[in-house]
Automatic annotation (TrEMBL):
Record protein name field: Tryptophanase
Keywords linked to the UniProt accession: Lyase, Pyridoxal phosphate, Tryptophan catabolism
Taxonomy of the source species: Bacteria, Pseudomonadati, Pseudomonadota, Alphaproteobacteria, Rhodobacterales
Assembly and interaction partners: Homotetramer.
Modified residues (N6-(pyridoxal phosphate)lysine): 256
Major enzyme class: lyase
Encoding gene (name): tnaA
Reaction(s) catalysed by this chain's protein: L-tryptophan + H2O = indole + pyruvate + NH4(+)
CDD domains (UniProt xref): Tnase_like
Similarity comment text for this entry: Belongs to the beta-eliminating lyase family.
Known pathway: Amino-acid degradation; L-tryptophan degradation via pyruvate pathway; indole and pyruvate from L-tryptophan: step 1/1
Pfam families: Beta_elim_lyase (PF01212)
Entry cofactors: pyridoxal 5'-phosphate
Length: 454
């Protein structure tokens, strides 16, 4: 059979409330055209993020009931730790309430004024934690990773020449080398096993620990299996183990590739570093066997980790993205290609080229998708990054719109509905107008600012 079906059936459903276009127009005006201001039950298909929004399986819900809420030494932690170590062979596994908490602990150890931390592309919260410590984060992704039309199979790869030059130039100021798999900020693009090993070898040659941000490790492993020479016949757990075997630690948001609604961890091999991290954990998150989580969360994650590496799931997961990218591409919409793991990225600046970057073409597209079809997406462009520390404003590097897919939550008919919504946007494209920001907070304005239609 050629049809790739959702490899699950539905036992419990969550109703979607259908809204009319006039209703959506009214709600948009009320929230100042900022989609973060909407109530989620006024959204038909919510593609704001793939983080914590996935559906748990019946086995995960059963695991929730097994959760043991003891303060110390809970068997839920033992099961969680074993599930992590089965895939990521690190000596110390430290649970946290989500990925950014693991980052905060990591950079309380490695950060500090004058330090420089390279990665392919740091995710916002990683960069935020690095900068909050006084250090600086630098992105050294390969050139193809910044070209939306390049068909390079591993556009998340680190540029190894740049990394070597960076390590030579910054020397002792580099406390750690990082790598994000998949590269979320760069379009959910994968990193090859060869590149992971190359980064590890370089870091180690310069005496630096190598830490992987592994949020979407299973999606990354699927791409390695499908695209990297010599990997096709290997299992996903084998590939995952190889990826992490060369690292000295990892940070993880279990809200992505562990099928959790909440959770994360920091893993390390070094005993002294782990002791420091646990000290910080106890001060900020909780005791070492629960971090910021309930025992039931730990059990749900342990089960989720065994499900996320199933090939039938990963095939269906990645296919949904590819399907939408193929359809949008055929309509002439500039999409980031090839399709990434967790999201479809649209180049709104290229598509809505009648709207200048400082009138937020990404926001115009995101608002149109909600107005026309009730779909919530996310602008990743000038509204998000345009305000400079000196108060001036300039266009971001790109104006993208991200449609991020919650795991196991939507079906093929939702995918077809999304495609149809874009057909309507194509028809309305030339009439779409830009926006101006009429009220904004000092920091991270995109979450709460208000826009007006121009
Ligand atoms: N690293 C990456 C690559 C991420 O994508 C995220 C979260 C984090 C770290 C932080 O994890 O949310 O558990 O604290 N990304 C979400 C997103 C929020 O929508 O892309 P967290």
């Amino acid at each position: 059979m050629k049809t790739i079906i959702e490899p699950f059936r539905i036992k419990s459903v969550e109703p979607i409330r259908l809204t009319s276009r006039p209703e959506r127009e009214r709600m948009l005006a009320e929230v100042g055209y900022n989609l973060f201001g909407l109530h989620s039950d006024d959204v038909l298909i919510d593609l704001l993020t793939d983080s914590g929004t996935g559906a748990m399986s019946s086995h995960q819900w059963a695991a929730v009931m097994r959760g043991d809420e003891s303060y110390a030494g809970s068997p839920s932690f033992t099961r969680f730790e074993a599930a992590v170590k089965n895939l990521m062979p690190f000596k110390h596994v430290i649970p946290t309430h989500q990925g950014r908490a693991a980052e905060a602990i990591l950079f309380s150890i490695f950060g500090g004024a004058g330090k420089c931390i390279p990665s392919n592309t740091h995710f916002d919260t990683t960069r935020g934690n690095i900068e909050a410590s006084g250090a600086q984060g630098d992105d050294l992704v390969i050139a193809e990773g910044k070209d939306p039309q390049s068909l390079h199979p591993f556009k998340g790869n680190m540029d190894l020449d740049k990394l070597e030059a960076y390590l030579q130039e910054h020397g002792d100021a580099v406390p750690v080398v990082m790598l994000t798999i998949t590269n979320n900020a760069g379009g959910g693009q994968p990193v090859s096993l060869e590149n992971i090993r190359g980064v590890a070898a370089l870091a180690h040659r310069f005496g630096k620990p190598f830490i992987i941000d592994g949020c979407r490790f299973a999606e990354n492993a699927w791409f390695i299996k499908c695209r990297e020479e010599g990997q096709a016949d290997r299992t996903i757990p084998e590939i995952v183990r190889d990826c992490f075997a060369v690292a000295d630690g990892m940070t993880m948001s279990a809200k992505k590739d562990a099928f959790g609604n909440i959770g994360g961890w920091l893993a390390l091999n070094d005993d002294d570093l782990a002791e420091q991290a646990r000290g910080h954990l106890i001060r900020t998150e909780g005791f070492v066997t629960y971090g910021g989580l309930a025992g039931r969360d730990l059990d749900a994650l342990a089960q989720g980790l065994s499900e996320i590496v199933e090939e039938d799931y990963l095939r269906y997961r990645i296919r949904t993205n590819e399907y939408i990218v193929e359809r949008l591409d055929a309509m002439g919409i500039p999409v980031v290609k090839p399709a990434g793991g967790h999201a479809v990225f649209i180049d709104a600046r290229a598509w809505l080229d009648h709207i200048p970057p400082l009138q937020y073409p990404g926001q115009a597209l995101a608002v149109a998708l909600y107005e026309i079809a009730g779909i919530r997406s996310c602008e990743i462009g000038t509204a998000m990054f345009g305000r400079q520390p000196d108060g001036s404003e300039k266009p971001a590097a790109m104006d993208l719109v991200r449609l991020a897919f919650p795991r196991r939550t939507y079906t093929q008919s939702h995918a077809d509905y999304i495609v149809e919504a874009f057909e309507e946007v194509v028809a309305a494209k030339d009439s779409l107008r830009g926006y101006k920001i009429v009220k904004e907070p000092k920091l991270m304005r995109h979450f709460t600012c208000r826009f007006e239609k121009l």
